[in-house]
Each structure stands twice: as structure tokens, then as C-alpha cells.
Amino acid sequence: MADAIDLVERSLADDTRETFDQRVDDQAVALAEALRAGRLDSPGFGLGLELEIYAVDADGRLARVPDDVFETACEREFGRHNAELNTDPDPFDDAGIVAQAEQLRRRYRRAQEAAGENGLEFVLDAMWTVPPAAGTDAYLSDVRERDGYTVAENMTPSPRYRAIDNDVIAHAGGTVTLSVPGVDREFPSMLFESLTSSIQPHVQVPDVGTFPRYYNTAIRTLGPVLALATNSPLLPPDLYDVDDPFALLEKTYHELRIPVFEQSIDDAWEKVRFPDGLERTVDALEYLVDDPTCAPFLKEWLSDGERETFGERFWELDHKRGTYWRWLRAVLGGQPIGEGDAWSMRIEYRPLPTQPTIVDNVGVQCLVAGLVRGLVDADHPLATLEADAAERCFYDVVTDGLEADLAWITADGTWTSDPDTIYEELFDYARRGLRAAGASPETIAAYLEPIEQRWHEETTPSAWKLELVRSRLERGESFAEAVRGMQAEYRTRAGTGEPFVRWPEGR
Fold first, then answer.
1. CA separation for the pair 93, 437 (Å, rounded)
2. pTM score, two decimals?
3. How many Cα atoms occupy the beta-carbon half-sphere of 399 within 13 Å?
4. What ranges do the domains of the chain cover?
5. Regions in the chain scoring below 50 on pLDDT
6. Containing H/E element for 321?
7. pLDDT per residue over 406-438, tens digit each?
């Protein structure tokens, strides 16, 4: 393979962008033809999952993951402290849900064992708050220049990541700004996005003709589902400039991961944002083609080209999809779950933060898949909710969590913002979808009920974190001490594997 900086230089060259864009156009035309021919229909519904995690040292500080851990246990992610666990897709049925949970447990256990051999631990969390030894600003701003390009030392040394970083920096004017309650900073790299981690459920939809209905319905669920999952209300304390920490706790967002990810890119382009709906499945292709090109690569630089898979035939189109950052993404292509050699279509549900335990993460996966299927199977009118209302609901949830102004269309076609009405329907239809998929009562109880209980108890991980920091401040601790103490308590309780709502009293 070519030198990483050489690949960055090639990626950002004007002639590369022209060649790449032409290939994307041509591949989109071919994929549209495959859509019309029914090649993306698949045998049934399917499930998959991506789960991002962090490494910490014995003192709970953010830490680099050694290379040998990735060789045996997990995938690399944007920062050197990040990792990703993926499940192989399974049919969306009872056995498939159980298989997804077992895969995730097995892979997380293997990752923990590999990390432990290096004196580290992986933690399931959405925004780690204990700074590395050098401090958060120094860690995120540790860059050097090489041949006219920026190299962020704590970014995974992937040519693609470095090209994306340099393309964003160039379009943003040399620095990237982070501005959230209590923090206004500029960074020489978009690496601050690596403070966040997420869970991304994937739901395979079998029929091209009905895909827009599933996708448009899923858009309208983003706010209410995120409200149950919020888990990133605070950044590392040494990033803040704040005199009154109590006031900060009142102002901060329940889901900082959303603005952090958006701001890491959107100084350059408005690429990370709420999704547009689909009238036709092919609209998803057109949106992708029209999206600004970021850090283009060409197939011959990286691909072995040995097999005629979807990824080989549509290499540049698939590469561009990796920088199509919407909070809900249509993924057209890839091997379907089931028999045959066709391709598939799936919904990638992207706004959800990593949850504290495996049970919680699989529970959110079941909620998303069951809800979207249940609503569409029942011909529920939620998809008629105005797009602007769904978007306002989503961003209100980002700031206010379960106390947000929600928006919903009920089964009888009535608009409502009443949380009791909304969540009664939401869990009713999630159960319908899970039952339609063949999920057993035991599976539904094991995975969906811990998420439903959050609503009944009116608590989420973000609310728990803010409450615990507040109580420690009231006992006289400094803001940094309170946050560190909260994070240590979270780490201990998450490490038990007990779902969040079963943590002992005192949360």
C-alpha cells in the first residue's frame, strides 16, 4: 500500500475528485437499474448492530488501544482510544435476537480480555469524561504538519480518516469549532468527534416498494426513541470554562454527542444533520450522489478486487456513503440475510449513544426494529407527521431528554405532544413488531422491558449522570471531582452487566 500521506495527497487532488464523482454517478445509475429489476429485494427482515466503545487505564483515564487488541478482538475507530464491535447480521426473529445478543456478549468479552492483557478496560459509554494524562485539549490538539498536511497524533493512522480530517479542516478555514454550554473552543483537527460513541442498529427491509414507508416512519421515531437513550450530558471537565457548575448542569444538553458530531464536520459542510424523507427508494441514491464529496478514494488504491461483491462493483459509491452523515441512513447494497446472491436494503439508525450494558444495547436494538416494523405492519399514520415537527422534536430531545417537547401522530390520526400517549403507543407497537417477527415473551421481557421501565421511572443514563454530579457538588466536591466520581460510579455499575434500570438505589 502507498504511504498514508501520499494517499491523503492523492485523495485531495482535483483530478481524483473528478474521477471519483464520475464513478459515483455511473455506479448510481447501475444500482438504480438493479433496484428497478428487483435485485435488492431480499428474503425477509434482518438485524445487525455496530457498537462503539472506549478504552480507559487503571485510573479511568482515556487511553490508547494497543495494536494487538485490534488484531484479535475488535475494529478500529476514529480515535486511538476508540474501538468498534460489530455483529454479523441475523434474521429478525427470536433466534436472531438471541444470536445478536450472544455475538455482542462474546465479542465484548474477547475485547475486554485483550484490553486487560494490556492493563486497560473497555467501557460502554457515550462520552468519556476523565481526561487523558496530558489533558483533553492537549490530547485533541496534538497535531504535526507533514508535507503540508495535518496529522493528528491521537487519530487512528488510517489514510481515509486523515484525508477526511484534512478535507474538513481545509473547508473549515484551518480550525474546527466546538460550541456547547460551557465550552467554546477551536481545534486544529476534527478529532474531538472521537470523544463520542454510539450504537447503530441496522434493520434489513425485504421489499424495494415498501422501503420508503419504513424509512419515513423511522424518521418520525428518532426523537422519542433518543429520549429514552440519552447518555452524554457532559464533556471532560478540563474543557469547560465555567464559574457556576450548578448552572452548567441546568444548561447542558442530555445528548451532547449530537452537536459534537455535527460541529466536527459542519464548519466545512452541512453534512451531519436530520434526514430528508423518501418518496421513492431511488431517492436515497440521488441524495447520496448530490451530497458534497469528502475525501474521495479510488478502488485501485485500496481494494484487492478479487471478488465481485457489491462493495467491489460499487466501490466508490459505497465509499461515499461512509461520509453521508445523516441521523438516519439508507444503505442500498450488501449481502442479504437469507438464501440467494442478491443484494439488500437496510435502515441504519444512527443517533443513539452507546448504552451502559449489553442488555441495554440489545434492548435499544429491539426497540428500534420492533417499533419500525410494528408501525408499518399496522399501517400506522406516524409517517404523516410533518417533517419539521419531527426535526424540532429530535433537537428538543437532544437538549432536554425526556422533558422535551415531543411530536407524534396517534393511531387514529391525531397529533399529540403528550408523553404518556406517545410512549404507550410506542411500546405497544414495538411489541407488535417484535411479536410479528416471532420474538418470544421471554425475549421481549429480557430486552424491551428494561428500556420501557426507563419511561415508567422517568430516568435515563444522562439524567442519572447529572443527578449524581449534582449530589456530589452539594457535598462540597469540585466540578472535576464530581464528574470523575460520577464516571467511576458509572464504570463500576455498568461493569456488573445489570441493565441500567436495575442499578441499586442511589442513582
1. 5
2. 0.97
3. 13
4. 4-501
5. 1, 506-507
6. helix 315-321
7. 999 999 999 999 999 999 999 999 999 999 999
